[in-house]
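Morning - zinc ion inputs below, output right after.
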Amino acid sequence: MKITLRKVGKTPFEFERKLDSIELKGFLQHDKENLIALKAKLTGTVETQCADCGDEFDLEVDEDLEFYISDGVFIDENNANIDVVETQNGELDVDELINSEIELIKSDYHCCEFCVMGED
Ligand SMILES: [Zn+2]
């Protein structure tokens, strides 16, 4: 699913996208200059590997995403030091966003419920 950034104005532009077992739901809103604020919630399950025993398991995901989207290259002139995702073609690829978040979650250290219980 792709969202044309031009369509996003001052009123929140709501979106919802489900990919397999994970869902991203939230809104986009024009912020300042060429920036669009994204606020969304990522929920569902991600299949990942236990760092301890190596078994595949479903990890519960419930994360708030909050960052800015720049239509084109973003130059941080004011050194605002904010999280900005740059897009090309004036479109936000929501599927790609979800997939990169999933990859990020998978790259973290996770243990399956059995190994977590074993640690106590
Ligand atoms: Zn395990």
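Note: The mean pLDDT is 92.

O.
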